[in-house]
Amino acid sequence: MVRFKNRYVCFELLFEPPADPACAARTSRPGQSQAPPVLSAKSISQLVRDCVKLSFGDSGAGHVLMGTQVKYFNARTCMGIIKVPRDHCRMVLAAMVLATHVNKRPCTVCVRHVSGTIKKCQKAAIRVDRELIIAWHQQQRVRAASGEAPPVSNSALSQLLQESASQISALEL
């Protein structure tokens, strides 16, 4: 019996800033110009499906999409993990990098880590998530010091970090 081997892809969605500088001043987190659109695992799955079909046609989509599954997606940090068949991992990576829009909003897909085990991908996702949340917290502190936003407590930071790590660690193995 042949074992099906998979790759796990940790990725981040980076949304482009608006052309209006007044909107850019109200950033919600580093790299994000405004609140990202409401996203879910289903919308990410649809994005991958559309990108693969556009880039590689029906044949490529048929090969790739049978084993592709969104394992994790956090709408707050726009981080996710996708399980992909090992033989077609490069096709999915190419299609994801070529994605330009999510829900009619310009964005870029940044692949952070590719691994053969979900455990290593979880560790990479936790590390990147932690960096993003700490950067967001520091930005909120600067905004609070200048009077633009209410102060954010350290307990909120630790709660966000703990919540993020527990969500990523709870993935099915």
From TrEMBL:
Listed A to Z, the keywords are: Hydrolase, tRNA processing
**Annotated InterPro entries:** Pop5/Rpp14/Rnp2-like (IPR002759), Rnp2-like_sf (IPR038085)
Which protein, by its recorded name, is this?
RNA-binding protein pop5
**Assigned protein family:** Belongs to the eukaryotic/archaeal RNase P protein component 2 family.
Q: Which GO terms describe its molecular function?
A: ribonuclease P activity; ribonuclease P RNA binding
Entries under Pfam families matching the protein:
RNase_P_Rpp14 (PF01900)
Q: What is its EC number?
A: 3.1.26.5
UniProt cross-references to SUPFAM superfamilies, sorted A to Z: Rnp2-like
Q: Which residues belong to the signal peptide in this entry? A: none
Q: Name one GO cellular component term.
A: nucleolus
Q: Answer whether the UniProt record assigns the keyword tRNA processing to this protein.
A: yes
| Gene Ontology process terms (BP) | tRNA 5'-leader removal
